[in-house]
Amino acid sequence: MNDDTIRTRFLGRRLIVETPEGTEEYDTQFLVAALLVFIARGSGRIEPEESALMIKLIEDYFDIEGAAALDLITRAMDVLSGKPEVAEQLVQLAKAFSTSEQEAVAVMALKVIAADGRREFAEMEQFKFAMETLSIPPETVHRAFDKYFEETMPGL
Taking the CB of residue 36, how many other CB atoms lie within 10 A of it? Predict the structure, then answer.
């Protein structure tokens, strides 16, 4: 952590970061938003289709309003850009995910990759890196691919 950080700790499914400016909290909703932003940025920029889909996916998955989903994504972009040490700590929150949550997160990430109609190599590399970093087992990732194709290409 940088010199400004006093202390980090985990409280259930939340990361608490105490800084001279105050206390910041990050939860698993934030982690999902940050993951999707990380994946979408794999190609160098976030396309409008990816942004719209990230908002919709978070809105639906967490049953929150679109404005709240947009706020999560915006905050995730800010943190990933300006506080990489927090992003490193967020990885620990993934341990709180159940297997079904891991699979759902992987499916959302795959949908974001495909949102702009292109499956770019860089985004797939980001996906692979994220799954490994979050310790999502290969068999869970495989089920996520199966579910993604089942949802997007029914009848194949």
Answer: 28
CATH number of 7-152: 1.10.3680.10
Is residue 154 left, alpha or beta, with left meaning phi > 0 and alpha meaning psi from -120 to 50?
beta
Ranges assigned E (strand) in 71-116: none
- Using DSSP, state whether 20 is helix, strand or coil: coil
The span from the CA of 152 to the CA of 117, in Å, is: 12
Place of tokens 């608490």: 16
Model confidence pLDDT, tens digit, residues 25-61:
999 999 999 999 999 988 788 989 999 999 999 999 9
pLDDT digits (tens, 9 = 90+) for 109-151: 999 999 988 777 888 999 999 999 999 999 999 999 999 999 8
The whole-number pLDDT of residue 119 equals 73
Whole-model pTM: value is 0.88
What value does the CA radius of gyration of the chain take, rounded to a whole number of Å? Answer: 16
CA–CA dist 88, 107 (Å, integer): 22
d(CA 133, CA 136): 8
Q: Which of helix, strand or coil describes residue 81?
A: helix
**What are the residue ranges spanned by the domains of the chain?**
7-152
